[in-house]
Specification:
Radius of gyration: 39 Å
Largest sheet: 4 strands, mixed
CATH architecture of the domain at 130-211: 2-Layer Sandwich
Structural class: alpha/beta
Shape: rod-shaped
Distance between the termini: 102 Å
């Protein structure tokens, strides 16, 4: 009897050992993914919609109500207001939450949705920045190419470019014919872009302004 008991104890798995898949009951293997709770957003909080409260989201018992004709009805019970219009056609939107009671206005659902849709499709306005490129009348062909290539990069990014050619100290002054040749080179290099200003020559300074087509 004692021999059988010792054999049984030796064959029994230790109390702390996890059961293998073959040892455990099939009922232990439930697909826990089906019962998992939905994950919250960052920080464990549910994502919130950033918009004005509407209909049952309005927390005040009383509201100042503006109907679809623009008529103001002061201090109305919210429940009574919500039952006074066709909920399939209109939203009651809290337009001034700081007022006491808050001001709520009736909005046509179709008009509101179309307005939101149009605002999403509206292209973002590009801020046009004016970049300046400056060099001297006696600039070398290599340096002019480098400067004008920089202007092309600015223009390709949607910026305006102001080009200023001026006399620099220590350089020989060019005659009018030579200046016209430099101006022609600039215009030829940037011929794919729109010349919006100039060339304007005042003294020994010449100014152009270009934009992308």
């Amino acid at each position: 009897m004692s021999t059988m008991s010792s054999r049984w104890v030796a064959a029994r798995p230790p109390a702390h050992r996890w059961l293998s898949r073959s040892e455990a009951s099939p009922l232990c293997y439930i697909n826990v993914r089906r019962y998992a709770a939905p994950m919250a957003g960052a920080g464990g909080k549910k994502p919130t919609v950033q918009r004005q409260r509407r209909d049952e989201e309005i927390t005040s018992k009383y509201v100042n109500y503006v109907d679809n004709e623009g008529q103001l009805h002061e201090r109305q019970l919210l429940d009574r207001v919500l039952s006074s219009f066709d909920r399939s056609l209109y939203f009651l939107v809290e337009v001034n939450a700081s007022a006491k009671p808050p001001v709520c206005r009736l909005f046509d659902k179709k008009h509101l949705f179309e307005k939101q849709k149009a605002s999403k499709k509206k292209p973002k306005q590009v801020e046009h920045i004016t970049k300046e490129v400056t060099f001297g009348w006696n600039v070398s062909e290599h340096d002019m190419g480098h400067k004008l290539n920089k202007a092309v990069q600015f223009l390709d990014k949607g910026n305006r470019v102001k080009i200023e050619i001026k006399h620099k100290k220590g350089q020989q002054r060019l005659d009018k014919v030579s200046q016209e040749e430099v101006i022609a080179q600039v215009k030829d290099y940037l011929q794919d872009f729109k010349l919006t200003k100039g060339p304007e020559i005042k003294g020994n300074i010449c100014v152009f302004q270009f934009e992308n087509q």
